[in-house]
Design a protein that fits this description.
435 residues; alpha+beta; Beta Polymerase, domain 2; Hydrophobic Seed Protein; Hypothetical protein af1432; 4 domains; seven-stranded mixed beta sheet
């Protein structure tokens, strides 16, 4: 993969320029060596203009300039490679590094020689596992870096420097575009084995209170000690996202799983009551479904993600509740669950919720029981139930199309969920057609 970059770097050198790897790629190369991911690579080119660089890249499939505030050139054949040219032609290597957010991201590596340029102590901070700002105005230049600091802390399992934390606490967050926040939250949840590290920093720096009041309201929201010995809803949520992070590789929709884990109990503050000394949160699943939509819509999340997350939250308690009453659960109830949601994905969220309680709990009996019940009915846990009959069947029976078709087909599908055969349903329809 990098052989083409080296070829480009040699071409750049032949035209009097010099190319350096920058940012996270250098950091990860120093942390992981050759095992570092080569997909997202930032390259800064010196001593050439943007136009000169574009003319060179024509030989490698061509490049296109994107972004207004911070223009980058993306290679058409590999849009995950970003090439930049300093805005000021006279910018030194030190100047270029100083523009970066954190010292561990402010190093450059010569593409051809492998020489490391480090003007701010990035290698030392890597060894100490510290995230530290490069300059006092780093967050004023781009407040989104506050989110980047906490998600990097979670991804790398690093500590944030105390002075950096103080700067984040004073950083204005109100003007950050929602979609940029969404991207940092996505990285926090999907790229970390312990997202709780970043979420705890979000609480401690005031990010949670200032930009995410629905999550902030989980702090101090009481739960039944018998069911939740771990503490309040916030602590439970932190544990759930960490368990879910360990399960996400099993998911076909890990983004939906992780956001559902983060938001699964977001309805509890509005529904929690104490009745006769007992703490309850009846209906928090339905309230959570609504609030999750609001939360994600405020971040301009994709509609399909919002739909998937809210559906998981609405159903997140059902696997365990059905298991608790398994001797009384009808086949119809199982069919209806399979028809409503992808049960395979739902079981991953339910497992995270079940285990995020501050103690060891075995979810396998729940999984095995529900999986076997679904299998015994000949159903696919990942696919809804296809209705046996449709409008054309009603027409074939001599019925005239109209608004009544929906009522009849709904009734027919309900019979299917009850376990009636297609022939039994057709007999019923024949009777309906004659009456």
């Amino acid at each position: 993969m990098t052989y083409m970059i080296k070829a480009i770097a040699r071409d750049i050198a032949a035209h009097g320029g010099k190319a350096f790897y920058t940012g996270g790629y250098v950091r990860d190369r120093l942390l992981l060596g050759e095992a570092a991911s080569g997909q997202d690579i930032d390259i800064e080119v010196f001593s050439l203009t943007r136009e000169e660089l574009l003319s060179i890249l024509v030989n490698y499939g061509g490049g296109v300039v994107v972004g207004r505030s911070f223009p980058v050139i993306k290679l058409k054949n590999n849009p995950q490679w970003d090439f930049t040219v300093p805005e000021e032609a006279s910018a030194s290597y030190r100047d270029a590094c100083a523009r970066r957010d954190f010292t561990i991201n402010a190093m450059m590596m010569d593409v051809l020689s492998g020489e490391i340029l480090d003007f701010s102590g990035g290698q030392e901070d890597l060894e100490k596992r510290i995230i530290r700002h490069t300059s006092a105005d780093v967050f004023a230049v781009d407040p989104l870096r506050a989110y980047r600091a906490v998600q990097l802390a979670a991804r790398l399992d690093f500590a944030i420097n105390p002075v950096t934390l103080d700067l984040i606490k004073r950083c204005p967050l109100q003007y950050i575009k929602p979609e940029r926040i969404m991207e940092e939250l996505r990285k926090l949840l999907l790229l970390s084995s312990h997202p709780s590290i970043g979420l705890r920093y979000m609480r401690g720096t005031g990010i949670l209170k200032r930009r995410h009041p629905m999550l902030f309201s989980l702090i101090g929201c009481k739960q039944s000690p018998a069911n939740h010995p771990e503490g309040d809803v916030w602590e439970h949520t932190l544990q759930v996202v960490d368990v879910a992070a360990g399960l996400k590789q099993q998911s076909r929709h890990p983004e939906a799983l992780m956001f559902a884990a983060l938001l699964h109990d977001i309805g509890k503050p509005a529904t929690t009551r104490t009745r006769e000394g007992k703490i309850t949160a009846y209906g928090h699943d339905l309230e959570g479904e609504k609030l999750a939509r609001v939360f994600l819509n405020q971040l301009n999340a994709a509609g399909n993600l919002t739909a998937a997350v809210s559906k998981l939250i609405r159903e997140h308690m059902h696997p365990v509740l059905l298991y608790k009453t398994r001797d009384k659960v009808s086949d119809k109830a199982i069919r209806k669950l399979v028809n409503r949601i992808n049960v395979r994905e739902l079981l991953l969220l339910a497992e995270a919720d079940f285990k995020g309680r501050g103690r060891e709990r075995d979810f396998e009996p729940v999984r095995e029981w529900l999986t076997q019940r679904i299998k015994s009915l000949g159903l696919d846990p990942e696919r809804g139930i296809v209705p046996w009959l449709g409008g054309k069947d009603l027409i074939a029976l001599g019925m005239k199309p109209g608004n009544h078709f929906r009522r009849i087909l709904d009734a027919a599908f309900e019979m299917q969920l009850e376990g009636k055969s297609r022939e039994e349903i057709l007999d019923w329809l024949n009777h309906q057609a004659k009456s």
